[in-house]
Amino acid sequence: MSEPRTVVDEALVDRTPDDQVVAPIGIISSVPDTGRAEAEARKRGISSRMPKLTLKLAAGLVLVLGIVAFAIIAPFFTQSPTYSGNPSLEPPSSEHWLGTTKLGYDVFAQLAAGARGSLLIGIVAGTIALVLSVLFGVLAGYLGNWSDEILSLVTNIMLVIPGLPLVMVIATYVPGRSWLLVAFVLGITAWAGPAVVLRAQSRSLRAREYVAAARVAGERTHRVILVEILPNLLPLLTAQFLFAIIFAILGEAGLSYLGLGPTGSITWGTMLNDAQTGQAIGMGAWWWFVPPGLLIALLGAGLSLINFSIDEVINPKLRIAPEYSRRVRKAAREGRGVAAEGSVA
User: Fold this and answer.
1) pTM (2 decimals)?
2) Complete DSSP assignment for 21-56
3) Residue 330 above 50 pLDDT?
4) What is the gyration radius of the CA atoms in the chain, in angstroms?
5) pLDDT at residue 230 is higher than 60
6) Closest by Cα among 307, 296, 334, 317 to 51
7) Distance CA 266, CA 114 (A)
8) Across-strand partners of 106?
9) Which residues, 6+ apart, have CB-to-CB distance to 143 below 8 Å?
10) Residue 344: beta bridge partners?
11) Is residue 300 within 8 Å of residue 308, measured between CB atoms?
12) Number of neighbours of residue 218 by Cβ within 10 angstroms
């Protein structure tokens, strides 16, 4: 009886390679490396969702941060924007850097105060639009069933209602319009379009494995949305927030130019309205209407440049387009062809 055991033992020893014997030790020792690799992959995933610092992004940040700094700092070094003791329609000088208005207001002081008003309206309206688009878009896409039907119905109703005419009607029937009311009205008319995009993205993320794993693990709905869904929508949410700010600032400027803007507040739009009613163009007072119009254009351009940089993160085609263009130019200089799929021939 002992001989068969000996033969079997010897056979087992002969059939067992040395690397399989040591394999469990290697597996145990490789566990920290696997965890480190997963951590590095997670970091790379977070960094890949951040826009790269390109010339376009740098120019947008310089414009936006410069205007924000001007809105915060400049009012502390100017006279009151409602002080009318200055000479009327005085051109730019060392005393009044941007001249004065028809009523003797300092244009530079009003420009600084108007920057605060326009930025506040844009930020408040953008925040309202972002919150509503998340509520009606992300919830509809993740919950599905009858909740999706109800939320989508409300979104579709808001989509067919023209935003700017609705704002004009509301502004017409409200006699005392504060900047907060104007921001609220602009915000509730700008969320439907982004909500449709967020609904489609949320439906796509809902079918991902990690979201399904969180649901199977018993995670609550709000935790799955906050931890698993929204972080992956962060670039898209940022882009939509910036677009809502641009829409609100331009919408307020248009309403104010028509005389339907905030009453008792100074914004770039109210400055343009005062210049229009004061016949600044006819009298050649360019310093009255050019500065607010120029700052509106520069702020819109800066936010758009930042938005374009974020779009390159969201859209893979835009992300690989610069590299593909460089390869095409390099191949053209070297006299080679470029294949249709992007590989240099």
Assistant:
1) 0.76
2) HHHHHHHHHHHHHHHHHHHHHHHHHHHHTSPP--HH
3) yes
4) 30
5) yes
6) 307
7) 5
8) 100
9) 151, 221
10) 338
11) no
12) 6
